[in-house]
Amino acid sequence: MNANQREGTMNVAPNDPITLAFPRTHPPQNAEIAGRPWQSLWVWSVDSYGNQANDAFTEVRVELVHPLGTLLRGSERAWRLQNGEANLGPLQSDLATTINMQICALNREWECLQHQLTIQPAATADFDIQAPSRVTAGEAFDVRVIARDRFGNQDPSYEGPIIFKTPRDAMSDNRQETMMVGGESLFTNIVLRTALSYQTLQVTDLPEDPPFPDTGVRNEKLIEVLPAAPVTLVFLVQPPDIVIAGQRLEPALVVSLLDEFGNVASLADQQAEVAISLLNRSGEPDLRFTEVRKTSNLGTSEFENVYIPWTGLDYWLRASAQLSQGPAAEDSSRFEVKAGRAHGFEWVSVVPPLPPSPRAGDPWVTL
Questions:
Q1: Taking 80 as the threshold, does the pLDDT of residue 53 lie above it?
Q2: Which of 217, 221, 225, 198 lies closest to 129 in space, CA to CA?
Q3: Dist. CA 194–CA 187, nearest whole Å
Q4: 1 pLDDT tier (thresholds 50, 70, 90)
C-alpha cells in the first residue's frame, strides 16, 4: 500500500465516478428527540466501490425541511468536504414530526442523498387544557387534556394517571381521575354552578397530598361562568321589624333576581321590572299603598323611597316580576308600623259637637 494512502481511502482521478454516501462506520440516526441537537451527521464522497475519496466534491448543502415548510435550525449554512468527508451537525428540530432529509453535494453536477428522520417529542412538561372560555351555570361541557413537551408537541407515550378538579366551585363535585391514552384524556359532563368572573379548571398528575409538591406536571385554565336565567326573587335587604309611619324605610330595600343555583342574574338580557306591594294580616294587598316599580340593573333593584303613612300590625312587602321563565314573587319579613313622635296638637272631637249656641248655665260636658 502506498505510504500516502490509508485503508479505506484512495486518490481518485477526475474521470472516476464519484458519489455522495453516508459512511458505513457512522450511519445517520433514524430517530432523534425534539429540542436535542444532533451532534453528528456525516457524509462521504466515495468511488463506485464505496471507498472514501478525498478530493472530489467542493461543496455540500443540506435541505432538511419540515412538513410545515420550515428549515431545521442549523441547516441554513453550507459545508465543504475536507478529505472527502463532512460533519453536518449540530442540527436541531423542536417540532416532533417526520423529516425528509435531502443532502446535496456539487461535483461536476449536484448529487443528492435522501434520508427520512423521525423527531420524537421530549418529556411531558405541560398539560394543554382545551375547554370553552365561557359557559353558563348548570350546563354540561367537555374538557380535553393533552400532554405536551416544552415545545408544544403532543407526547403520545404519556399515560398518567391525572386528576381533574374545579376547586372554586363548592356546589359542584367535578373531581375525576383517569389514565391518559396516547397522551390525551377527555373529561365529559363537567358542570359548574357558581357564576364567577373566572372559575379554575385544574389538572395535575400529583396525588391530593404529594410528598414532593414541587414535582409533577400541572396546569390551570380560567373559565368564565355566566348566571343561568333568573327564576326567583330574594330580598337582599329586608324591612326593619319596626317601621315609622310616614318615614322612608331605611336602609333602602334591595331585591335581586336569582337563577336556580342562587347566582345573581346580572346579564343585560336577564333584567326585569320588579314591583313592591304591601300586604296586611289578611294576606291581601293593602290598596291604600301605591305600588312601587323599578327595573333591575345587573340583577338588583334598590327601592329608596318606600314609606307607609299609617300605623298597623303584621304587615309585609311582596316583590314580584315577570321573568323569562314565568312570574315570580317573594315575600319580605313581617313588620309593625308605629306612629312617630308628636310634632304638635290637633283638636279631635270624640263626641257629637256642642250646640252652636249653648244656653247660659248649661255645663260643658267635654272639650
A1: no
A2: 221
A3: 19
A4: very low
C-alpha cell at 216: 409533577
Q: Are the beta carbons of 241 and 284 closer than 8 angstroms?
A: no
Q: Which comes out higher in pLDDT, residue 41 or 273?
A: 273
d(CA 192, CA 167): 11
Of 237, 293, 301, whose CA–CA distance to 271 is shortest?
A: 301
Question: Rounded distance, CA 276 to CA 50, Å?
Answer: 99
Between CA 58 and CA 267 the distance in angstroms is 73
Residue 108 burial (10 A CB sphere; 0-12, 13-18, 19+): exposed
Q: Which amino acid is at 356?
A: P
**Residue in 114, 117, 115 with CA at minimum distance from that of residue 99:** 117
Residue that wins the pLDDT comparison between 324 and 363? 324
Q: How much is the pLDDT for 169?
A: 79
Torsion, CA 302, CA 307, CA 311, CA 314, rounded to 10:
-10
Which residue, among 332, 274, 328, has the nearest Cα to 303 in the 3D structure?
A: 274
Give the three cell numbers for residue 351. Answer: 263626641
Q: For the whole model, what pTM was predicted? A: 0.73
Per-residue pLDDT for 15 more than 50? no
Q: In what helix (H) or strand (E) does residue 256 lie, and over which residues does it extend? A: strand 253-258
Buried b (16+ CB within 10 A) or exposed e, 137-147: bbeeeebebbb
- Show Cβ contacts of residue 226 under 8 Å, excluding neighbours closer than 6 positions: 134, 135, 136, 137, 195, 267
62: Cα separation from own chain's centroid: 44
Distance, C-alpha 342 to centroid of its chain: 62
Rounded to the nearest 10 degrees, how much is the dihedral formed by the CA atoms of 262, 263, 267, 269? -10
Sign of CA dihedral 289, 258, 282, 238: negative
Report the alpha-carbon distance of residue 216 to residue 210 in Å, rounded. 9
Give the residue from 121, 29, 115 showing the smallest Cα distance to 64. Answer: 115
**Hey, is 148 helix, strand or coil?**
strand
What is the pLDDT confidence band of residue 215, given thresholds at 50, 70 and 90? low
Region of poorest pLDDT, from 23-37, 86-100, 260-274: 86-100
- Which residues pair with residue 101 across a beta bridge? 64, 115
